[in-house]
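Reproducibility note. Readers wishing to regenerate the assembly model reported in the main text can use the exact inputs given here. Chain order matters: entities are listed in the order in which they were concatenated for prediction.
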Amino acid sequence: MPTNRQILLDNRPEGEARLSNFKLVSSETPALQEGEVLVRHHYLSLDPYMRGRMNDAKSYAACQPLGEVFQGGTVGEVVESRHPRYAVGDKVVGFGGWQEWSVVDAGKPGMLKKVDTTHVPLSYYLGAVGMPGVTAWYGLVKIIEPKPGETITVSAATGAVGSALGALAKARGCRVVGIAGGPEKCRYATDELGFDACIDYRQHPDVKSLSRALKEACPDGIDGHFENVGGYVLDAVLLRTNAFARIALCGMIAGYDGQPLPMANPQLLLVNRIKLQGFIVSEHMEVWPEALAELGGLVAAGKLRPRETVAQGIESAPEAFLGLLKGRNFGKQLVKLI
Amino acid sequence: MPTNRQILLDNRPEGEARLSNFKLVSSETPALQEGEVLVRHHYLSLDPYMRGRMNDAKSYAACQPLGEVFQGGTVGEVVESRHPRYAVGDKVVGFGGWQEWSVVDAGKPGMLKKVDTTHVPLSYYLGAVGMPGVTAWYGLVKIIEPKPGETITVSAATGAVGSALGALAKARGCRVVGIAGGPEKCRYATDELGFDACIDYRQHPDVKSLSRALKEACPDGIDGHFENVGGYVLDAVLLRTNAFARIALCGMIAGYDGQPLPMANPQLLLVNRIKLQGFIVSEHMEVWPEALAELGGLVAAGKLRPRETVAQGIESAPEAFLGLLKGRNFGKQLVKLI
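Running the prediction on these inputs yields the following structure tokens for the assembly.
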């Protein structure tokens, strides 16, 4: 059996996450039991939610156990199978974690899914046509419920979730305004993702300045907002909301290291009769087929052109993950293993 | 025609509202035109939302014009009529404002409603079987959507809205826990309103202490919350919410004088996948008939026994209103004019 390099969570961060929280080990992959398959991982998915799982504290994501393989989504290829539904060569998406290989009990529901790579590259099943894409779909369709002509804003606009949100909202006839870090990301949002405007928050480092920029980019106010960041970004958006605005609260990456992240003016939620709802997409598996079908269609039609930032080799995963938390990625952050 | 004493808004408060913001004047009531009726007001309704209307700033309630009769709900009796649907002696609820008499264009939809005082005292149409009652109904039924066995909390629990909320939630098989100011109000909540428990926030003046008291009173956590107050009360409640809790945001009286009222830990909205929604009941007129029918039934059955604090005479309205903002009332605050 092949040697399997794995990244474990070695200890929990105090404040900011660090490389020293992780540990690289090697082990032999065990021989397959009846019903199991051996998957060679091609890509690991790196996602902001993983930061929450590193803490012991209560979070929406279950806690990552210490000393075990760091959990996360993976795509790969079946290289050995003792399960009748899987054949060698099948491309599969699963939750194999930060390791090069995984042995999967393929009969357990939800463990593995075969995917078709004729029209959609394998890596996209970790991004636009995977969990991040469905996250955008759920927040937009089920919480924001946009109407044509409405203005929708999204923070972390060029990330895996934000870029899908933009394409989905444009497909519904909305004006879409992104918030992202740096001129290159903002150009990508408007030129390639079809956003109507994108605001560089680095040019607007306080709530007053950002809310002024939002006023300019959203002359009719904000009807729906998809929040990935929190903090002063959310405060600035709230100042520009219209009556009956809806806010899908997906992430608050600004507070992942435990910073206090107060909302300055919750009275606006009342004044503007806002609905704000937190969610986690894995609790809404019923929408996945419909969402993935639409997302796959948008990719196939060239209306959703996801960017990827790809780190090479299992050993690069921790550093790439820390970069993601600081917004150093451009689009979906992946680790390529082959 | 009778002399009509009226309270006008004379100037807008800076910070706290004061007696000097109001002005008492007298005028003759004009002669009736075709289609009008003359109503003698028996009671004026005093409600927390009125504080928001005193400001020039954007609020959920429209701004009260300066130099005009202070707007508000009224109940009274028709004493003269030039409209075929209204007869002398009819008891009516309307929006006559802080004055002793009003001349009403009775044909305009929504201006006047005849009410039956056989089983429900006239004043209740300004409280439990009026706007405050429907406010509780909307927040509970349409936003919180309680299930039997769930735990529901409400701040300002013994006020006109809170007491109705308690009865409505008990009728749905919930555990109901109030938050109110002082031992007398808390006793009334448990002994007469049927609350399962009531916490005296004056005994718990900070978020840590109040959240500990909530933990004790809500051993299974909080599934739904109806917010009238905001500030540290809401912060403490958030710490005790269960996954998928719903919060109906009805008022934030703690911030009515313009105090900053930040929410300490909005991450909890995400961690617990909470839905929080602000609303104003006058935008949901479609629910009024169903809500009023249930509220009237609860009163008739003795399951909702509203308290009233009654000030006497039009001249007492401003001071009674300022007392309401400080929680000096016990139950629905009224001004009796006859």
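We highlight two features of this model. The first strand of chain B starts at residue 3 and ends at 9. The interface with chain A takes residues 58-60, 230, 234, 249-252, 255, 260-267, 269-280, 283 of chain B (CB under 8 Å).
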